[in-house]
């Protein structure tokens, strides 16, 4: 049997509730044998996995995962499935190949949290952390606050991001109950950058981050936030943290390269999509 534990951050009831409320959808559970996968269903019938890196749950066998893949493939509605690149998420993805078309595939950075994460940082990332510290940047770890929402929404507006990423205060308040915490960096001008991490059992995720537009943060501030966030994830019992990927599928994507300098692994992550029922 495979242990697809149900205590990952993206399976937490409060996280699912926050995602559903944010986009005006409702939870929808697909079950096959001992395996189940949580989806969200919009009012137009579209079904998709929650934002992030979910996985199927249950004490399952390979046969259960194969049956779950069949059940997903037979859903008579538009469907999008993007899973964790680790564990049972990756196993279910293997069973989905050939059943639901792959819309695209991107690479995702993962940090394994054995020992101090700083020891696994690449030379450039390590140098940026030291630079931020030498320039007086300090950090603190705390519960997610409304201030993060203000900073994040301002950052999204400045780059004209899709409204999907305009998370409101209720969203941040709800995910705090799902294992979320905030790491904030301050320089001589005040708060310059912040990030929210999610932790559930052995799994963690670098969820959202934002930085001050003007004046620009001290160089290395975001590297410092990532380091201290990974350290806090480890203190909370996580053994891996998914840092995410880039803004595109380009292997030379700047954001992907930035995260890769602080990761121990880079894994492929397909997104399965069928637009017609």
Key attributes of the depicted protein:
alpha+beta, eleven-stranded mixed beta sheet, two-stranded antiparallel ribbon, 8 helices, 32% helix, 31% strand, globular
Please characterize this protein's 3D structure:
The protein is of the alpha+beta class and 277 residues long. The protein folds into two domains: 2-105 and 270-274; 110-266, Aminopeptidase (3-Layer(aba) Sandwich), CATH 3.40.630. It is built from eight helices and 13 strands. The protein has helices at 13-23, 62-73, 87-96, 123-134, 146-158, 169-176, 221-235, 254-260; strands at 2-4, 26-32, 35-41, 47-49, 58-60, 79-82, 102-112, 138-142, 180-187, 190-200, 203-211, 240-244, 265-274. It has an eleven-stranded mixed beta sheet, sandwiched between helices. Helix 1 runs antiparallel to helix 6 and helix 4 packs across helix 7 (221-235). The chain is globular, with a radius of gyration of 19 Å. It starts with a strand and ends with a strand. The mean pLDDT is 94.
- Give, in spatial order, the strands making up the sheet with the most strands: 2-3-4-6-13-7-12-11-10-9-8
How large, in whole angstroms, is the Cα Rg? Answer: 19 Å
Question: Which class best fits the helix and strand makeup?
Answer: alpha+beta
H/E element order: EHEEEEHEHEHEHHEEEHEHE
**Shape, per Cα inertia axes:** globular
Helix segment count?
Answer: 8
Question: CATH topology of the largest domain, anyone?
Answer: Aminopeptidase
What's the quaternary structure here?
single chain
Rounded to the nearest angstrom, the distance between the terminal CA atoms is 33 Å
Largest sheet composition = 11 strands, mixed
Tell me the fraction of residues in β-strands, as a range: 25-35%
> In total, how many beta strands?
13
CATH class of the largest domain: Alpha Beta
């Amino acid at each position: 049997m495979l242990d697809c534990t149900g205590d990952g951050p993206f399976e937490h009831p409060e996280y699912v509730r926050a995602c559903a409320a944010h986009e005006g959808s409702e939870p929808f559970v697909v079950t096959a044998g001992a395996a189940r996968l949580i989806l969200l269903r919009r009012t137009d019938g579209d079904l998709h996995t929650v934002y992030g890196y979910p996985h199927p749950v249950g004490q399952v066998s390979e046969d259960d995962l194969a049956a779950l893949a069949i059940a997903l493939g037979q859903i008579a509605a538009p469907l999008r499935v993007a899973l964790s690149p680790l564990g049972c998420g990756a196993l279910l993805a293997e069973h989905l190949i050939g059943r639901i078309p792959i819309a695209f595939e991107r690479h995702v950075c993962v940090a394994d949290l054995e020992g101090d994460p700083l020891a696994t940082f690449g030379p450039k990332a390590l140098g940026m952390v030291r630079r931020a510290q030498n320039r007086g940047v300090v950090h603190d770890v705390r519960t997610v606050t409304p201030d993060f929402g203000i900073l994040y929404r301002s950052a999204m507006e400045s780059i004209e991001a899709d409204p999907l990423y305009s998370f409101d205060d209720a969203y941040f308040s709800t995910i705090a109950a799902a294992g979320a915490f905030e790491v904030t960096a301050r320089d001589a001008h005040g708060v310059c950058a912040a990030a929210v991490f999610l932790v559930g059992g052995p799994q963690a995720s670098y969820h959202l981050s934002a930085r001050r537009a003007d004046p620009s943060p001290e160089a290395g501030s975001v590297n410092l936030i990532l380091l201290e966030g990974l350290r806090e994830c480890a203190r909370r019992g996580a053994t891996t943290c998914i840092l995410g990927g880039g803004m595109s599928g380009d292997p030379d994507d700047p954001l992907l390269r930035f995260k890769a300098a602080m990761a121990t692994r880079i894994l492929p992550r397909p997104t399965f999509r069928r637009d017609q029922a």
